Amino acid sequence: MQLVGQKVEHGMFGQGLITDxxxxxxxxxxxxxxxxxxxxxxxxxxxxxxxxxxxxEIQAGIDKQLEAAAAKNxxxxxxxxxxxxxxxxxxxxNSQAAFNVDMxxxxxxFAAGAVSTGCYLSGYSKGEPRIPxxxxxxxxxxxxxxxxxxxxxxRQILGAFMVKEDFWGDSCSNGMVEAHEQHTLRLGAENSLxxxxxxxxxxxxxxxxxxxxxxxPNSTMQKVLLxxxxxxQGTEDEPLIQEFxxxxxxxxxxxx
Length: 256
Fold this sequence. Notes:
The chain is of the alpha+beta class. The protein has four helices and twelve strands, in the order βββββαβαββββββαα. The chain has helices at residues 52-87, 106-112, 218-231, 238-251, and strands at residues 7-10, 14-22, 25-30, 33-38, 47-49, 96-100, 114-116, 140-145, 156-163, 176-186, 193-194, 213-216. Strand 2 (14-22) and strand 3 (25-30) form a beta hairpin. The protein starts with 6 loop residues before the first strand and ends in a 5-residue tail after the last helix.
């Protein structure tokens, strides 16, 4: 855009001529002498080009900068509010969840980074997605599988993930629990853990029932993750589970 030589109008100095434009500084020659202005800011309030098309082009650029600045400020405000909400998060004792999934669903779940909560089986909300109201940014989720023709006591833990930092279960209306981008792990069959080993029960083994997921204590999840660390020791996933565990303890305010 060629500005040198363009005529302008200033509310105080009157008509002038742009004689130089460099380093975001515009020099305008007025009858009273030369004046310098910041480009393009001055064109939004102090000076106006006689050439309306160029003035409109500059104004469009100014508007774009203002929109970008407003969007950045909005994003910063939302990030601050999110972090503040996490700092003020009230830790409840049973905000972890275990999901019953099919072995054939695991690839899709890890690819999508989300798992379904299923639907309500009765009541006013029957058929609608189940809202995971107890899940919050401090929640971890286990993916469990019962091998075909196996008793319930053989239920295996084959994966785990922290929920996203901005996930709040009481606002999850679509029934999809989204996984954290970083803290997600998958166990091979050779490293799988038995889910019911982490619970005290009287014979017979509890039935899972028809619900897709169950809540359980934060302290129990910590034990599971410690065993994850042992199972993955010496493997390429060892750094991942260590970071996962550190993050889990920090956000749940648990001793490491």
